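Handout, section B. The chain below has 368 residues.
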Amino acid sequence: MNLRLCVLLLFGSVLPLPGRAADYPPPNERDFVLHNFKFTSGETLPQLRIHYRTLGRPVKDGHGLTTNAVLIMHGTTGSGAQFIRPEFAGELFGSGQPLDATKYFLILPDDIGHGKSSKPSDGLHAKFPQYGYRDMVEAEYRLLTEGLGVNHARLIMGTSMGGMHTWLWGEIHPDFMDALMPLASLPTQISGRNRVWRRIIIDAIRNDPGWQGGKYKVQPPSLRTAAEMLWFMSSNPVLRQKEAPSLTKTDELLDKFVNQYVKTADANDVLYALAASRDYDPAPNLEKIKAPLLAINSADDLINPPELGILETAIKRVPKGRAVVIAYSEKTRGHGSHTVADLWKSELLQLLKRSEPLSVDKRGDKPQ
């Protein structure tokens, strides 16, 4: 796998994106500002900026209910921009494809602390509010309802962190969507090895004298440690060995990734993004999810390995839940398989068919 694709398939994008495919429209980019946003920590931000991209136009039925909105949420340290590329948009957003932008209203936000949305590196640094996943879901909800006038979603989906947000959406707003599709995630508290690799990065930054309590003038050396750990967790061992079959080649590949990563990344942004998972735990309320849910993981995902058996057990508690674990193959990319839509788009089509709502006359829905 080349360096650019490796970065993009990890959790998000820190490199310039290639041009979009010609068969779907360019995304429209805007900002939505939430005033005096109160975080679960009790802190308040006078202006919380949420950057977002949209493709297509919203459609409402005779009762004013939005019928074609699709929310797609990115992973840790990523942004909505990561989806505008051949491996994802090129497989999904084109004419006749599963999420055809001429039929669906596609919404790709940059979450709190990510992309072009409000984040520590904008100026507050370590004084930025300590946000969590529930704050991020609340901002997503308000973007849709207050910013875009969307009162119902045809589909809510996400990758990695966005997949975790998808589970929370299903519990917090169970009547808001027709279908849910979390990718590369588990419906349980961050624990075990998944917590450990996050702690390694968090501790490396916080214990780095160069971090200076978040008031650094130049990026602390621990940002390189963060990049190395992200690279380590992103792919599967077989692919890594194929890419780096010798000590020299491994060092060369790792150094190239890290050197590119630190050009645009920020230590506080990375620290906050990883620490945000502390309040994630959908396990106690899985029975509250009403919409058909399809959870997709891959067998070679080091972050969510199927050997744990967590997904298989938890999905039984979701009333309309189904789980699929993609078998290892030359096409899978470990955790990064979530962005290779060709691996799972047929399952997406089945979910859309299974969750097709009744006609307006038969369901009699009211705007929510």
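Note. Residues 17-196+282-357 form a domain with the Rossmann fold fold (CATH 3.40.50.1820). Compare this with the example in section A.
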